[in-house]
Design brief:
4-stranded parallel sheet, 2 domains, Rossmann fold, alpha/beta, binds 1-(2,5-dioxo-2,5-dihydro-1H-imidazol-4-yl)urea, single chain
Amino acid sequence: MKLLLINPNTSAPMTAAIAKGAQAVASSNTEIIATQPSFGPLSIEGHYDEAFAAAGVAEQVKLAASWGPDAVVLACFGDPGLEAAREATSAPVLGIAEAAFHAASMLATGFSVVTTMTRTCIIAERLVQRYGFEHQCRGVHGTDIAVLDLEDGGEEIIGQIEHAAREALSRDRSGAIVLGCAGMTTLCHTLTQRLGVPVIDGVAVAVKFAEALSALGLGTSKHGDYATPLPKVYTGWAAPLGWPKAR
Ligand code: 2AL
Protein backbone atom coordinates (compact mmCIF):
# COMPACT_ATOMS: atom_id res chain seq x y z
CA MET A 1 0.00 0.00 0.00
CA LYS A 2 0.99 3.63 -0.50
CA LEU A 3 0.84 5.66 2.72
CA LEU A 4 0.96 9.45 2.44
CA LEU A 5 2.72 10.79 5.52
CA ILE A 6 2.26 14.54 5.85
CA ASN A 7 4.43 16.56 8.18
CA PRO A 8 2.22 19.66 8.57
CA ASN A 9 5.20 21.90 9.31
CA THR A 10 7.76 22.88 6.64
CA SER A 11 10.96 21.60 8.26
CA ALA A 12 12.53 19.20 5.73
CA PRO A 13 14.87 17.59 8.31
CA MET A 14 11.85 16.89 10.53
CA THR A 15 9.93 15.39 7.59
CA ALA A 16 12.91 13.09 6.96
CA ALA A 17 13.16 12.06 10.62
CA ILE A 18 9.43 11.31 10.86
CA ALA A 19 9.56 9.34 7.59
CA LYS A 20 12.45 7.25 8.91
CA GLY A 21 10.51 6.44 12.09
CA ALA A 22 7.40 5.57 10.09
CA GLN A 23 9.32 3.32 7.68
CA ALA A 24 10.88 1.49 10.64
CA VAL A 25 7.48 0.31 11.91
CA ALA A 26 5.73 -0.07 8.54
CA SER A 27 5.09 -3.46 6.95
CA SER A 28 7.41 -4.46 4.12
CA ASN A 29 4.66 -3.88 1.55
CA THR A 30 3.93 -0.35 2.78
CA GLU A 31 5.55 2.45 0.82
CA ILE A 32 5.82 5.66 2.87
CA ILE A 33 5.55 8.80 0.76
CA ALA A 34 6.54 11.65 3.08
CA THR A 35 5.75 15.25 2.28
CA GLN A 36 5.22 18.68 3.80
CA PRO A 37 3.24 21.78 2.76
CA SER A 38 4.74 24.18 0.21
CA PHE A 39 4.09 27.09 2.60
CA GLY A 40 3.64 27.74 6.29
CA PRO A 41 5.53 27.62 9.57
CA LEU A 42 8.77 25.68 10.11
CA SER A 43 7.29 24.38 13.37
CA ILE A 44 3.79 24.40 14.84
CA GLU A 45 3.70 25.87 18.32
CA GLY A 46 0.44 27.77 18.62
CA HIS A 47 -2.94 28.60 17.13
CA TYR A 48 -1.58 30.99 14.47
CA ASP A 49 0.94 28.38 13.22
CA GLU A 50 -1.83 25.80 13.20
CA ALA A 51 -4.11 27.88 10.97
CA PHE A 52 -1.52 27.81 8.18
CA ALA A 53 -0.56 24.19 8.85
CA ALA A 54 -4.19 23.10 8.35
CA ALA A 55 -4.28 24.79 4.94
CA GLY A 56 -0.94 23.16 4.09
CA VAL A 57 -2.35 19.73 4.97
CA ALA A 58 -5.37 20.36 2.72
CA GLU A 59 -2.98 21.37 -0.08
CA GLN A 60 -0.97 18.16 0.22
CA VAL A 61 -4.03 15.88 0.38
CA LYS A 62 -5.48 17.60 -2.68
CA LEU A 63 -2.19 17.25 -4.60
CA ALA A 64 -2.03 13.56 -3.72
CA ALA A 65 -5.39 12.96 -5.41
CA SER A 66 -3.38 12.64 -8.66
CA TRP A 67 -1.88 9.31 -7.45
CA GLY A 68 -4.39 8.20 -4.80
CA PRO A 69 -2.84 7.20 -1.49
CA ASP A 70 -4.31 4.14 0.28
CA ALA A 71 -4.07 5.93 3.63
CA VAL A 72 -2.97 9.29 5.01
CA VAL A 73 -1.23 10.08 8.32
CA LEU A 74 -0.95 13.65 9.64
CA ALA A 75 2.20 13.86 11.73
CA CYS A 76 1.61 16.82 14.03
CA PHE A 77 0.15 16.48 17.50
CA GLY A 78 -2.48 19.19 16.99
CA ASP A 79 -3.99 17.09 14.16
CA PRO A 80 -4.25 20.27 12.02
CA GLY A 81 -6.63 19.97 9.08
CA LEU A 82 -7.69 16.43 10.00
CA GLU A 83 -11.35 16.85 9.11
CA ALA A 84 -10.58 18.90 5.99
CA ALA A 85 -8.28 16.08 4.86
CA ARG A 86 -11.06 13.55 5.42
CA GLU A 87 -13.36 15.54 3.14
CA ALA A 88 -10.65 15.66 0.49
CA THR A 89 -10.04 11.89 0.18
CA SER A 90 -11.84 8.59 0.57
CA ALA A 91 -8.70 6.97 2.00
CA PRO A 92 -8.55 6.63 5.81
CA VAL A 93 -6.90 9.70 7.40
CA LEU A 94 -5.32 9.41 10.84
CA GLY A 95 -4.10 12.20 13.08
CA ILE A 96 -1.31 11.24 15.45
CA ALA A 97 -3.01 12.68 18.55
CA GLU A 98 -6.26 10.84 17.88
CA ALA A 99 -4.38 7.59 17.13
CA ALA A 100 -2.19 7.92 20.22
CA PHE A 101 -5.16 8.56 22.55
CA HIS A 102 -6.91 5.45 21.23
CA ALA A 103 -3.77 3.30 21.66
CA ALA A 104 -2.99 4.64 25.14
CA SER A 105 -6.54 4.06 26.36
CA MET A 106 -6.24 0.40 25.36
CA LEU A 107 -3.02 -0.03 27.35
CA ALA A 108 -3.73 1.80 30.61
CA THR A 109 -6.75 3.18 32.44
CA GLY A 110 -5.12 6.58 32.42
CA PHE A 111 -2.38 8.26 30.39
CA SER A 112 -0.41 11.50 30.50
CA VAL A 113 0.73 13.57 27.54
CA VAL A 114 4.21 15.10 27.55
CA THR A 115 4.56 17.76 24.91
CA THR A 116 6.76 20.66 23.80
CA MET A 117 5.88 24.29 24.56
CA THR A 118 3.54 24.82 27.52
CA ARG A 119 1.46 27.17 25.37
CA THR A 120 0.51 24.20 23.15
CA CYS A 121 -0.98 22.22 26.07
CA ILE A 122 -4.37 23.80 25.45
CA ILE A 123 -4.35 22.41 21.88
CA ALA A 124 -3.88 18.85 23.16
CA GLU A 125 -6.37 19.40 26.00
CA ARG A 126 -9.04 20.52 23.54
CA LEU A 127 -8.36 17.48 21.35
CA VAL A 128 -8.76 15.24 24.41
CA GLN A 129 -12.22 16.77 24.94
CA ARG A 130 -13.15 16.71 21.25
CA TYR A 131 -12.22 13.05 20.86
CA GLY A 132 -13.89 12.06 24.16
CA PHE A 133 -10.84 10.97 26.20
CA GLU A 134 -11.44 13.19 29.27
CA HIS A 135 -11.73 10.12 31.50
CA GLN A 136 -8.50 8.52 30.25
CA CYS A 137 -6.20 11.54 29.86
CA ARG A 138 -5.03 12.51 33.33
CA GLY A 139 -2.80 15.43 32.35
CA VAL A 140 -1.05 17.31 29.54
CA HIS A 141 2.43 18.55 30.45
CA GLY A 142 4.63 21.07 28.67
CA THR A 143 8.43 20.85 28.73
CA ASP A 144 9.10 24.18 26.97
CA ILE A 145 11.34 22.38 24.49
CA ALA A 146 11.00 24.05 21.07
CA VAL A 147 9.87 21.64 18.33
CA LEU A 148 12.97 22.18 16.20
CA ASP A 149 15.26 21.55 19.20
CA LEU A 150 13.97 17.96 19.22
CA GLU A 151 15.94 17.41 16.01
CA ASP A 152 19.22 17.16 17.90
CA GLY A 153 17.64 14.61 20.29
CA GLY A 154 20.65 14.79 22.62
CA GLU A 155 20.83 13.63 26.22
CA GLU A 156 19.72 17.01 27.58
CA ILE A 157 16.49 16.88 25.56
CA ILE A 158 15.80 13.22 26.37
CA GLY A 159 16.54 13.89 30.05
CA GLN A 160 14.06 16.78 30.18
CA ILE A 161 11.31 14.69 28.60
CA GLU A 162 12.11 11.71 30.86
CA HIS A 163 11.93 13.96 33.93
CA ALA A 164 8.56 15.44 32.85
CA ALA A 165 7.23 11.95 32.12
CA ARG A 166 8.29 10.58 35.54
CA GLU A 167 6.63 13.53 37.30
CA ALA A 168 3.48 13.03 35.20
CA LEU A 169 3.27 9.28 35.92
CA SER A 170 3.50 9.97 39.64
CA ARG A 171 1.36 13.13 39.89
CA ASP A 172 -1.34 11.99 37.46
CA ARG A 173 -1.33 8.34 38.68
CA SER A 174 -1.22 7.33 35.02
CA GLY A 175 0.08 4.13 33.46
CA ALA A 176 1.27 5.29 30.04
CA ILE A 177 2.92 8.27 28.40
CA VAL A 178 1.80 9.78 25.10
CA LEU A 179 4.53 11.74 23.30
CA GLY A 180 2.98 15.08 22.34
CA CYS A 181 4.97 15.91 19.23
CA ALA A 182 5.82 14.13 15.98
CA GLY A 183 9.42 15.25 16.48
CA MET A 184 9.62 12.93 19.52
CA THR A 185 9.26 9.83 17.36
CA THR A 186 13.04 9.24 17.38
CA LEU A 187 13.08 9.28 21.21
CA CYS A 188 10.33 6.70 21.79
CA HIS A 189 12.57 3.65 22.05
CA THR A 190 14.97 5.20 24.58
CA LEU A 191 12.12 6.62 26.68
CA THR A 192 10.32 3.26 26.71
CA GLN A 193 13.46 1.58 28.05
CA ARG A 194 14.04 4.23 30.70
CA LEU A 195 10.46 4.66 31.93
CA GLY A 196 9.32 1.02 31.94
CA VAL A 197 5.74 1.94 30.94
CA PRO A 198 4.10 2.01 27.51
CA VAL A 199 5.34 5.11 25.68
CA ILE A 200 3.13 5.89 22.72
CA ASP A 201 4.48 7.61 19.64
CA GLY A 202 1.47 8.74 17.61
CA VAL A 203 3.36 8.45 14.33
CA ALA A 204 4.08 4.74 14.86
CA VAL A 205 0.56 3.83 16.02
CA ALA A 206 -1.08 5.93 13.28
CA VAL A 207 0.97 4.09 10.63
CA LYS A 208 -0.07 0.70 12.03
CA PHE A 209 -3.75 1.73 12.40
CA ALA A 210 -3.67 3.09 8.83
CA GLU A 211 -2.29 -0.22 7.54
CA ALA A 212 -5.01 -2.13 9.42
CA LEU A 213 -7.87 0.02 8.12
CA SER A 214 -6.55 -0.10 4.57
CA ALA A 215 -6.05 -3.89 4.72
CA LEU A 216 -9.68 -4.23 5.84
CA GLY A 217 -10.80 -2.15 2.85
CA LEU A 218 -12.05 0.61 5.17
CA GLY A 219 -11.86 4.26 4.15
CA THR A 220 -13.34 7.64 5.07
CA SER A 221 -17.12 7.73 4.72
CA LYS A 222 -18.37 9.87 1.87
CA HIS A 223 -21.88 9.73 3.31
CA GLY A 224 -22.66 12.94 5.17
CA ASP A 225 -20.27 15.63 6.31
CA TYR A 226 -17.04 13.93 5.16
CA ALA A 227 -18.39 14.03 1.58
CA THR A 228 -16.10 15.63 -1.04
CA PRO A 229 -16.01 19.45 -0.64
CA LEU A 230 -18.69 21.34 -2.57
CA PRO A 231 -17.55 22.65 -5.96
CA LYS A 232 -16.49 26.24 -5.36
CA VAL A 233 -14.19 28.97 -6.60
CA TYR A 234 -11.29 29.73 -4.27
CA THR A 235 -9.53 33.05 -4.75
CA GLY A 236 -6.06 34.55 -4.24
CA TRP A 237 -3.21 32.20 -3.37
CA ALA A 238 -5.73 29.46 -2.50
CA ALA A 239 -7.22 29.44 -6.03
CA PRO A 240 -5.71 26.01 -6.94
CA LEU A 241 -7.11 24.47 -3.73
CA GLY A 242 -10.82 24.85 -4.53
CA TRP A 243 -12.88 21.92 -5.85
CA PRO A 244 -13.94 22.45 -9.48
CA LYS A 245 -17.31 21.35 -10.84
CA ALA A 246 -17.14 17.82 -12.29
CA ARG A 247 -16.98 18.00 -16.10
C1 2AL B 1 3.98 19.79 16.91
C2 2AL B 1 4.26 18.68 16.07
O1 2AL B 1 3.93 17.52 16.28
N1 2AL B 1 4.94 19.18 15.02
C3 2AL B 1 5.07 20.52 15.19
O2 2AL B 1 5.63 21.29 14.40
N2 2AL B 1 4.46 20.87 16.35
N3 2AL B 1 3.26 19.67 18.07
C4 2AL B 1 3.69 20.11 19.29
N4 2AL B 1 2.84 20.00 20.32
O3 2AL B 1 4.79 20.59 19.42
